[in-house]
């Protein structure tokens, strides 16, 4: 979007994590890192220099975290960057932040943002880190219940050639979910009116079913489909996200996280872990509203990120051991472990 640029090629670049009982990376230079991490840092510095060259920037760097300090220092001493800074006309402040300093932000469910939900719940577009597959079957005469229907190519979120779709995507990123969904309806109604499709405008809350019924109007009109294909892909992504079981679970996550923040303030970590224990259920015991193994891993990352310093002791060791046992049993009972669980095991 106009305000956000992602560099997905570097998505795997993470600061080294602390070992058990050890300390984080001290004030070290690039030479102290493993070869793979050194190469990734040099790639990032080179990519950033290319980006700043294109923007004509002379940067002043600030860093939060050990790896960020190394990257800022490498960028400062990078020979092509020194030349660029001498020639550049525009000034900018660049802030580097270690990703591991905000794990609670990355796994939390506090955002009331449609773009975040679409990117979280729809399957990734093959070969992409930042785009998703949108099922396009609804726009065709093919009626199939097969979720993985691969005859029809998937749609996606990147619609650089469709001004209406680009404007709608900005709304998804910048507005609250309710407002963004209303924007989706407004764009659809305008597109249908331009194509003289028999649309009945309704007021009140926007439902996925209502958006679907509007989309159906375009189905048998090839010219209208072609003219508004980008917009339709974004609205279909909205419908599929709102109907997705993971979206209804989003509110459960949010409620649990809020409860957790209150509980952690009042009691110690062992009692919080003991509260979590009965919720860890094996595949055969789970309903669609229960948490899966991945959900628990996300919750645990959130818990340990927000709790700060933890007082260790026998009680904590016992509670952690029980949670570990329950998680291991649940992972072993999965009939088809997800790619993430396979990677972990």
UniProtKB/TrEMBL annotation:
Its BP terms in the Gene Ontology are: vesicle-mediated transport
Q: What is this protein called?
A: SCFD2 protein
Source organism of this protein record: Ardeotis kori
